[in-house]
């Protein structure tokens, strides 16, 4: 009897000679699908479609870890849709599983990985922060150590795994283009969904989410703060501002008028997405990112062009009341006068309370004691009862002044390493892309003082990936070895 597959035959002939095998597999699949649908109804239909797709994707990720990275990025945007689910599904844990699977695939395909890139300074800086967060598990102040894992993921663990994957995989310029396209497309749809919420109305699931407690942050003076499919309006607004910055930089850097038209239209749409979020602090993504862009360019002409665009807009917001009748413009303008804002003054009062609480806790109250995990595992602990309002305040509460100092030094190190690498680049396209990534990274780092977005999906996924693109950007330079 002939073997199932004969090496002397072409693949088409091999499958033609074994049609019985395909028929048998097809019949078994059909019977299984029928049984699932008959037994489970709609869930059976979903399983019949979802299980084969999941198997195909599993095999695909194991064969090509870059596919896993792409899936992880896309699912990071989809996580906001969990508010439409009635069942309690641990989507975040699923994302962790994809990340671990991608890392496993990286090791399985180790022969074509560039492991020497793990010797780069940025990776060692991250190792220092990772080690500190691991030691924080043993913080004697921690009332519930098992909650450590819930915040350690966004503090350092996910960043560490993505750093390995991004650093060693043979990522190409084409992959970077795909990342930009995915980012822009999701952001565009997020803006449209935000407009739908603002001007058409909310879905029942979104109304239910507001009624469960989110209403007090998202409806102010009877005006909705759009949140799209992000975790909240703060993250939505900051992401819209960040991608607006990205489009403006690409507008200035491209020579194609077609692309310029596309980028300026996207910038307008995304900027209004930021406006309808009512997230005033998100303006600082642009106010910090633009100077970073100018500094990275080191070109007086570009600086002058940028000032000619940004200067008048900033002057109108600062020194006039034009557009105050439009709620969104009034909210943006108020960000430039924080001392007149009652909520900002409340934040300062909360921070003073935290200073008194943390004065004898240089290593903080322990990772997982504030915000969501704190309210879940130790709701009566003081750290869980004070609103963090800021990513850096959360770091400060949970890791103390020592941890906050290390964290800020790490971010500053990434910006410094990225700047040095970018200034050494010769390839114009790579230079433009990396400047855009680093400028946006800088803007998000600044706005994280006002909103705890740096540890939320999809912002965290994007920044963790980008940080190890611009700190290793010399590998794509025309005059460098890949």
UniProtKB/TrEMBL annotation:
Primary localization class, coarse: membrane
Residue span, O-antigen ligase-related domain: 266-408
Topological category with respect to the lipid bilayer: Multi-pass membrane protein
GO molecular function: ligase activity
Annotated GO CC locations: membrane
Keywords: Ligase, Membrane, Transmembrane, Transmembrane helix
Tree of life domain: Bacteria
Location(s), subcellular: Membrane
Spans traversing the lipid bilayer: 20-37, 43-62, 69-85, 91-110, 122-138, 150-171, 178-195, 233-252, 257-275, 303-322, 395-417, 429-449
Name assigned to this protein: O-antigen ligase family protein
């Amino acid at each position: 009897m002939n073997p199932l597959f004969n090496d002397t035959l072409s693949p088409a002939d091999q499958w033609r000679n074994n049609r019985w095998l395909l028929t048998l597999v097809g019949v078994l699949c059909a019977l299984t699908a029928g049984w699932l649908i008959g037994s489970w109804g709609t869930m059976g239909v979903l399983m019949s479609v979802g299980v084969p797709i999941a198997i195909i994707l599993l095999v695909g990720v194991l064969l090509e870890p870059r596919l896993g990275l792409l899936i992880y990025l896309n699912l990071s945007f989809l996580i906001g849709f969990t508010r439409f689910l009635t069942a309690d599904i641990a989507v975040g844990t699923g994302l962790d599983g994809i990340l671990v699977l991608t890392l496993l695939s990286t090791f399985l395909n180790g022969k074509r990985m560039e492991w020497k890139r793990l010797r780069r300074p940025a990776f060692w800086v991250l190792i220092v922060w990772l080690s500190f967060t691991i030691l924080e598990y043993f913080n004697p102040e921690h009332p519930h150590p098992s909650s450590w894992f819930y915040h350690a993921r966004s503090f350092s663990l996910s960043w560490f795994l993505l750093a390995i994957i991004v650093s060693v995989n043979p990522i190409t310029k084409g992959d970077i283009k795909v990342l930009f396209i995915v980012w822009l497309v999701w952001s565009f749809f997020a803006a449209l969904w935000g407009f739908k919420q603002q001007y058409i109305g909310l879905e029942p699931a979104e109304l239910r989410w507001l009624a469960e407690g989110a209403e007090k942050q998202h409806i102010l003076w009877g005006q909705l703060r759009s949140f799209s499919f992000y975790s909240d309006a703060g993250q939505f607004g900051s992401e819209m501002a960040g991608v607006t910055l990205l489009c403006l930089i690409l507008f200035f850097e491209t020579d194609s008028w077609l692309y310029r038209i596309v980028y300026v239209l996207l910038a307008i749409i995304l900027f209004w997405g930021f406006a309808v979020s009512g997230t005033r602090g998100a303006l600082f993504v642009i106010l910090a990112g633009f100077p970073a862009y100018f500094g990275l360019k080191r070109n007086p002409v570009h600086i002058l062009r940028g000032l000619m665009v940004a200067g008048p807009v900033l002057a109108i917001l600062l020194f006039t009341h034009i557009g105050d009748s439009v709620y969104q413009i009034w909210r943006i303008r108020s960000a430039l006068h924080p001392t007149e804002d009652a909520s900002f003054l409340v934040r300062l009062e909360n921070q003073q309370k935290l200073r008194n609480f943390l004065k004898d806790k240089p290593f903080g109250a322990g990772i997982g004691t504030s915000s969501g995990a704190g309210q879940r595992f130790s709701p009566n602990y003081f750290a869980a009862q004070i609103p963090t309002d800021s990513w850096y305040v959360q770091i400060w509460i949970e890791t103390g002044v020592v941890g906050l100092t290390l964290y800020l030094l790490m971010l500053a190190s990434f910006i410094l390493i990225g700047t040095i690498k970018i200034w050494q680049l010769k390839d114009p396209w790579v230079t433009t892309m990396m400047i855009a990534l680093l400028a946006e990274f800088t803007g998000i780092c600044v706005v994280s003082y006002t909103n705890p977005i740096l540890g939320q999906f999809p912002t965290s996924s994007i920044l963790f990936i980008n940080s190890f693109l611009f700190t290793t950007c010399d590998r794509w330079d025309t005059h460098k070895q890949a």
